[in-house]
Amino acid sequence: MPFPGSHSQVFYRGANGVAYLLRSRFILKHLHFPKFQANTPASALFHQILMAAAAASSSKPKRNYDVFLSFRGTDVRNNFVSHLYTALDQHGLFTYIDNEELKKGQKISPALMKAIEESHVAIIVFSKNYASSPWCLEEMAKIMECKAHNDLIVLPVFYKVEPREVRGGRESYGRAMAKHESNFGKDSEKVKRWKEALFDAGSLFGWGLNDG
Questions:
Q1: Tens of pLDDT along 182-200?
Q2: Which run of H or of E encompasses 26?
Q3: 143 and 70 in contact (C-beta within 8 Å)?
Q4: Catalytic-role residue among 139, 162, 165, 181
Q5: pLDDT digit string, tens, across residues 72-112
Q6: 139 catalytic, yes or no?
Q7: Residue 103: what are its φ and ψ, rounded to 5°?
Q8: Could you give the C-alpha distances from 105 to 102, 134, 142, in angstroms and in order?
Q9: Which DSSP state fits 7?
Q10: Is the N end or the C end of the chain the one with fewer CB atoms within 10 Å?
Q11: In a 3-state reduction of DSSP, which class is residue 122?
C-alpha cells in the first residue's frame, strides 16, 4: 500500500523477508532529511521508519524513550545513523543514541540496558561489522528479550547486508560468530544466546538499503 502523497509502491517484500526499495515519487515537502535529498532510497526509507516508529510509540503507554537505536558506530554512526537520528528528532520522536564507543574490556552500562527497557521501539541497524562487536550483540539480545517480554517493537534495517547473512550466520556474520566461539568457547551460552537473537531479529520484516 503506498503512503499518502506517493504515486507508486516503493517497497516490496522479497522472499527473504526484507522490504526492498524500488522507486520513490513521494511528495516529501513536510519532511527534511539532512544530506539526503527527497525521492532517494534513503529518504523513502526514513519516511517509512518514521511512520512505523511514530505509530508504535503513540499507541503505547508513556515510556522514557520513543526509539532506541542499536548500531555499529564504525559502520554507520557518521552517515546513515546520524541522519536517521536527526530525522527522528525533527519529528518529535525522543530517541536514545549511545554516543560512546566502548573499548575492549569495558562493559555495557546498566543505564543503556535500562534505556532499552524504557523504549517503545528499537531500530537495529545491521551492517557489515555489527556482529563483530560483543556489545552490539548484547544490545541486540536484550532488545529481542524485551520484544518477547516487554512488548518492545523491533524494526530492523539491513544496511548493505542481506537478512539471510544475519539470521544464518553467513559472510561477515559467520566470520564474526566463529571468532566469538573461539574467544568464549564453542559451547558458550553467551554465544548461543547471540546466535538465537540474530536468527530471530534477522527473520523479522524489515528494510534493506544498499545506498547511503
A1: 999 988 999 999 999 999 9
A2: none
A3: yes
A4: 139
A5: 999 999 888 998 898 888 888 899 998 755 445 456 788 88
A6: yes
A7: -100, 165
A8: 8, 11, 19
A9: S
A10: N
A11: strand
Cell of 96: 536514545
Listed residue (126, 34, 132, 128) closest to 85, CA to CA:
34
**Closest Cα to residue 21, out of 47, 54, 51?**
47
**Which phi and psi (to 5°) does residue 57 adopt?**
-70, -30
Q: How far apart are CA 55 and CA 43, in angstroms?
A: 18
The answer to whether residues 131 and 198 touch, using CB atoms and an 8 Å cutoff, is: yes
Residue 42, pLDDT > 90, answer no
CATH superfamily of 45-209: Toll/interleukin-1 receptor homology (TIR) domain (3.40.50.10140)
pTM of the full structure: 0.77
* C-alpha cell read off for 2: 503506498
